[in-house]
Write a structure and sequence with these properties.
This protein is an alpha/beta fold and about 375 residues long. It has two domains: about 180 residues, Thiamin diphosphate (ThDP)-binding fold, Pyr/PP domains (Rossmann fold), CATH 3.40.50; about 100 residues, Rossmann fold, CATH 3.40.50.920. Helix content is about 35%, strand content about 20%. The chain has 13 helices and 14 strands. The chain has a seven-stranded mixed β-sheet with strand order 3-2-4-5-7-6-12, sandwiched between helices. Strands 9-11-10-13-14 form a five-stranded mixed β-sheet, with helices on both faces. Helix 1 runs parallel beside helix 2 and helix 10 packs across helix 13. The N terminus is likely disordered.
């Protein structure tokens, strides 16, 4: 006789949700009122969720003819004052990059969810990977830091999407949520009534007194925002410009505007640093990871400790700005530091090597499949 495994006593708030669905949940709770996208595996579920739920509450969701149009629509909505988001995967991200740079230059808040799949080019649409980590961070010309957050569970998809909206608004800059196929499309039990509390923040708003389109004193100050078609004159351009938004080349004020785009992010890097830790006193080896691979890395540490080894785990939720202090502290006693990631050559490890002089980093990598705990443990 078949048994009904649904426990009637289970709380009604406990349900199955995918990472993609929890991205949508986080966006809506953060106050997102505009979504535009173009369907692409493995991000299409976000498109569907946002379309259904935004339209049901009277907000706006638009299908776009292509990915660059989708991001441009979001930028326009944000410049009118609405919180906006789009979602895509590697091939679509490649098309969005020009518009993404425009958002950075015009200091337009917008959230892009990039769900990684196997590349390059069309690659494997239904295969997971972590191959877009550098493409996300270095999508802009000039070396500017793009905040990038990487969830490893559906609940983290929720919290990091909310964090992405908060930091995008506070900094007036585009932010990337870097998910991956396994996190995005795997369903797990989530208690919707017990989700973490994440503050909802809004961009600073301009007033008429002393108004300039790009008004800041110290380089790390964030200019107050004035919406298009509001009471104040707004001047926007993707070209180098002064504080009035006028095109200029190499004068001191224009160069200050360009420096300011990096300074405002750099000044808040410590506040943006989010990690998960499972550290052991006097550990002689540390594994650092992110996204779906961090779950295998945590299990590798558990197995190693059960066998008598002294091991520590550090899961990175913030990839950029690089959480240098957290990594250095976790590696304080380690004689061996391994970075585990699902790509061909250890993309994030290469960046960490430059940011963490004096710490020798080793990599464990795979292509076309998830790393197994045993593989990571062997590298430790």
């Amino acid at each position: 006789m078949a048994t009904d495994i649904r426990a009637e006593s289970a709380p009604s708030s406990l349900t199955l949700r995918s990472g993609n669905q929890m991205v949508a949940e986080g966006a809506l709770r953060a106050g997102c009122r505009f979504f535009s996208g173009y369907p692409i595996t493995p991000a299409s579920e976000i498109y569907r969720e946002m379309t259904v739920r935004l339209q049901a509450r009277g907000d706006v969701a638009l299908g776009a003819p292509d990915e660059i149009s989708a991001l441009c629509y979001c930028i326009g909505a944000s410049q009118r004052g609405a919180k906006a988001m789009t979602a895509t995967s590697g091939p679509g991200w490649a098309l969005m990059i020009e518009a993404f740079q425009y958002a950075l230059m015009t200091e337009t808040p917008v959230v892009v969810v990039l769900v990684q799949r196997l590349g390059p080019s069309t690659g494997g649409a239904t295969q997971g990977a972590q191959g877009d980590v550098l493409l996300a961070e270095f999508a802009t010309s000039g070396g500017y830091t793009v905040p990038v957050f990487a969830p490893s569970t559906p609940v983290e998809c929720f919290t990091l999407t909310m964090e992405a909206f908060s930091w995008s608004e506070v900094l007036r800059t585009p932010v990337v949520v870097l998910s991956d196929k396994e996190v995005a499309m795997t369903y797990e039990a989530v208690d919707l009534a017990r989700l973490p509390e994440v503050p909802v923040r809004a961009r600073p708003m301009a007033t008429a007194e002393g108004y300039r389109p790009v008004r800041f004193g110290a380089l790390d100050e964030v200019p107050p925002f004035a919406p298009l078609a509001g009471s104040l004159k707004v001047t926007l351009t993707g070209s180098a410009h002064n504080k009035d938004g006028w095109l200029r080349k190499n004068d001191a004020e224009t160069l200050d505007v360009l420096r300011h785009l990096e300074a405002k992010v750099d000044a808040r890097a410590r506040d943006m640093a989010m990690v998960t830790r499972d550290l052991q006193e006097d550990a002689d080896a540390l594994v650092v990871s992110y996204g779906i691979t961090s779950r295998a890395a945590r299990e590798a540490v558990r197995l190693g400790r059960a066998a008598g080894r002294r091991l520590s785990f550090l899961g990175l939720l913030t990839l950029f700005p690089i959480p240098v202090e957290a990594i250095r502290e976790a590696a304080r006693t380690a004689r061996r530091v391994v970075v585990a990631e699902e790509n061909l050559s250890g993309l994030y490890r290469k960046v960490l090597g430059g940011a963490l002089p004096g710490i020798e980093l080793h990599g464990v990598n795979t292509l076309g499949a998830m790393l197994r705990p045993a593989e990571i443990l062997e590298a430790l």
